[in-house]
């Protein structure tokens, strides 16, 4: 459903939210390891998210990426839109450019309903809401060794 870039962006932003809520900063290598992503790829993604104002960064020995308090209210929809645009919320399920209400593809009306449900779910999913669940190990961002070996 999401591009690989968007998947890493979402996971990276959740990781940053969890690890910087008390004023710390995390480097891209730590983030990449923490979410099981390629370092060079996550560095480029975070640079773009920083340029778009979704994540903050500071250079230097005590530098790294972090979120401002207000950024904990960012929704997953905000991240998806920043990375992949709004095609997930507006595009045709079959990828047809000419699909519309007056010129629908075979799945147009059913897919429209699914798009709206996905959009609502992502808009209500706020970064800050994931922190406690991660701390309680109710959710995860990286597969554990158990899953990798089985």
From TrEMBL:
Listed PROSITE patterns: HTH_RRF2_1, HTH_RRF2_2
Pfam entry (one): Rrf2
Cited InterPro entries: TR_Rrf2-type_CS, Tscrpt_reg_Rrf2, WH-like_DNA-bd_sf, WH_DNA-bd_sf
Source superkingdom: Bacteria
Designated name of the protein: Rrf2 family transcriptional regulator
Originating species: Niabella pedocola
UniProt-listed PANTHER family: TRANSCRIPTIONAL REGULATOR-RELATED, WINGED HELIX-TURN-HELIX TRANSCRIPTIONAL REGULATOR, RRF2 FAMILY
């Amino acid at each position: 459903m999401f591009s690989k870039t968007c998947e890493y962006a979402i996971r990276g932003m959740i990781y940053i939210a969890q690890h910087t809520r008390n004023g710390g900063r995390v480097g891209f290598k730590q983030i990449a390891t923490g979410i099981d992503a390629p370092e060079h790829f996550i560095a480029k993604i975070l640079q773009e998210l920083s340029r778009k104002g979704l994540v903050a960064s500071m250079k230097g020995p005590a530098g790294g990426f972090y979120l401002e308090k207000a950024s904990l209210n960012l929704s997953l929809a905000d991240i998806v839109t920043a990375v992949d645009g709004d095609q997930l919320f507006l595009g045709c399920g079959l990828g047809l450019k000419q699909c519309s209400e007056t010129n629908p593809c075979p799945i147009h009306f059913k897919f429209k309903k699914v798009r709206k449900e996905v959009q609502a779910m992502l808009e209500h999913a706020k970064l800050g809401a994931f922190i406690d669940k991660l701390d309680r190990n109710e959710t995860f961002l990286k597969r554990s060794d158990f899953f990798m070996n089985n």
